[in-house]
Amino acid sequence: MSQRLNFRLRPTEGSVLRVLGSIERRGFSLEHIESRRVGNAILLSVAVSGERPVEVLIRQLERLYDVLSVELEPCPDAYTTACLQQSFGEPAAVPT
Amino acid sequence: MSSIAPQRAAPSPSVEAKPYRAAHALLDALRAEGVRFIFGYPGGAIMPVYDALVDHPIRHILVRHEQAAALAANGYARFTGEVGVCMATSGPGATNLITGIADAYLDSVPMVAITGQVATFLMGTDAFQEVDTFGLTLPVVKHSFIVREAEALPAIVHEAFRIARSGRPGPVLVDLPKDVANRPIFAKPSHPVPDPPLPECNPCALERARHLLARAARPVLYTGYGVFLARAERALRAFVEATRIPTVSTLKGLGGLPTDHPCFLGMLGMHGSRAANQAVQEADLLICVGARFDDRATGKLDGFAPKARVIHIDGDPGEISKLRYAEVALCGDLSRILDALSLRPVPPEWGRRVEALKASDRPRYDAPGRFIYAPALIRRLYERLPEDAVVTCDVGQHQMWVAQHGVHRSIRQHLTSGGLGTMGFGLPAAIGVKLADPERTVVCVTGDGSFMMNVQELATLRRYGIAVKILLLDNAALGMVRQWQELFHDRRYSEVDLSDNPDFAALARVFGLWAARLESRDQIDALLQEWLRSEGPALLHVPIDPKANVWPLVPPNKANHEQLMET
């Protein structure tokens, strides 16, 4: 199942390459890519698939200097998301 | 011993003042960041910066291979906690830096690497010594810049330093085209501003951690290099003193809790102590502090700490639940988090069990035979070293013996390439440390394989009179590979024989070092003393048993409690 990540990036040299490379190196496949420059940012939308938790990938991408924000479009694995939210102390019920 | 004084150019006969160029602004910006040393090697595309160096007070250390520049800056940064700086030209100079940059990336070392690049109008034309340094280094840097506008250079340097040292540290590349470096500029050096504070730890997560700690019957602390990155050794020690929770460490976390502390059980993982691995196996709560569940530490992940819930304390949210699900994640300032946790003492039954594990796992140093027994030599070395000495290692069997048998009093006193496992790390790293603190005893423990990977740096020791003491354990083989071929490849030895090594003591003397060969056990005390007290850089060559192996050992794809012991 693929999941879509929406990024706002700094418009710096190599920022798109850096993000796409990071996604692949972390074990995810790139299924679809769209990118465009809007004002002082690059908007990048990527559909990814992989067996590892996408929430961990998001935190790894958030630490990139070029990434101003990254959002996961709804439809993730509900159990994994709830568990990870709870481990960070956020009020989320783990499905049984 | 002679040493080379910094060279200064004679005053120019020209009466015209030189314009202030980007190359000079680069050096001023580095100085504004507090840089004391640049480790580097000149070449065509970086020549404007080397020209500016002639008139600049910043100190440049000329190494003999660019890889050593990156590793010396790496060692300097690991020891000081400051940003290390290395520099090379384009093309092969840049590619030679990459191993040291990758080493810094995997071990979270703050570093800025400056590379020359061909002129902007030649970039993309396959020009002489042109290579896409930016592209080549993308996977192994925290961030990178190509300087296209000279005026932007001071701000880029400042930002590079901020990125390198902030959060989870790492290397940053600044690629500087030659024509940009030569351009006159009018920008002033950028002044450092403090990094933003770390976010507050989530109070709900903290409460959940307290709850787990209060109920744990068999807690174990699992600590790593993140303790050093967060400057949290004090808080860790206070936490252990208050709770007496048994503690195990990763390779790079050794010294976070002194290894002679009663609560310390040793390194965990592939070559970890039996007590450490067994305690983790039995634990019902694992408190991971600044570590990342690396495969060398966990063994087969499914079998790691199988009965334990996990509290993961780290400065980097990207590590949480990456490999092992954490019931509680505490991200933020490690010291504040540790100070805020429950201080309930460990249950007495668990304390007694762990004491028994530790008592049954004391290493022996009375090996029979005539060969020098490397673990005993390492132990003897540490008994003779000043308490504040720094030991750097290379990679292989000797590295594991140092980890297992050294007495590590703080993390920055044991520098080892943990993530990348870079053979050739030890000597350049020791150069970086000794330059940072010339009064400190700095020892490089190396092996005959690793030593030859950066042997040319003996010339750097001689050139600057850098009094690093090298202890070379020589088993005439690539010992760790040989050990694996013996145990897991049916003794089919493939390209591991180094019995035609040079005479290492004679080689060192050619480079101007004091050198000796230690051949029998009754020479150990006298020669260690003579070697440590010798003036300037020195090498002690120690032939050891070519068949000696590192024990214990967790075989590949096995859980840590299935480790093999010496028979």
Describe this structure in words.
The complex is a heterodimer of chains A (96) and B (567). By secondary structure, chain A is α+β, with helices and mostly antiparallel strands. Chain A has a single domain, classed as Alpha-Beta Plaits (2-Layer Sandwich), CATH 3.30.70.260. Helices cover 31% and strands 34% of the residues of chain A. Chain A is built from 3 helices and 4 strands, in the order βαββαβα. In chain A, strands 2-3-1-4 form a 4-stranded antiparallel β-sheet, with helices on one face. In chain A, a hairpin with a 2-residue loop joins β2 (29-38) and β3 (41-49). The longest helix of chain A has 11 residues, at 15-25. Chain A is globular. The model of chain A has no long low-confidence stretch (mean pLDDT 87). Chain B is an alpha/beta fold. The model of chain B is unreliable at 5-15 (pLDDT under 50). Chain B has helices at residues 22-32, 47-53, 66-80, 92-106, 133-137, 153-165, 178-182, 203-215, 226-229, 233-243, 274-282, 295-298, 334-340, 348-359, 374-384, 397-405, 426-436, 448-451, 458-464, 479-488, 504-510, 524-533; strands at residues 37-40, 59-62, 84-88, 111-117, 143-146, 171-177, 219-223, 247-249, 264-267, 285-289, 309-314, 328-331, 390-393, 414-415, 442-447, 469-474, 514-517, 538-543. Chain B has 3 domains: 22-182, 3-Layer(aba) Sandwich (Rossmann fold); 203-359, Rossmann fold (3-Layer(aba) Sandwich); 374-543, Rossmann fold, CATH 3.40.50. Chain B is built from 22 helices and 18 strands. In chain B, α1 (22-32) crosses α2 (47-53), α1 runs parallel beside α6 and α15 crosses α16 (397-405). The radius of gyration of chain B is 25 Å and the shape is globular. In chain B, α22 links the parallel β17 and β18 (538-543). Chain B has a 6-stranded parallel β-sheet, sandwiched between helices. In chain B, strands 9-8-7-10-11-12 form a 6-stranded parallel β-sheet, sandwiched between helices. Chain B has a 6-stranded parallel β-sheet with strand order 14-13-15-16-18-17, with helices on both faces. The chains are: A alpha+beta (96), B alpha/beta (567). At the A-B interface, α1, α2 and α3 of A face β5, α8 and β12 of B.
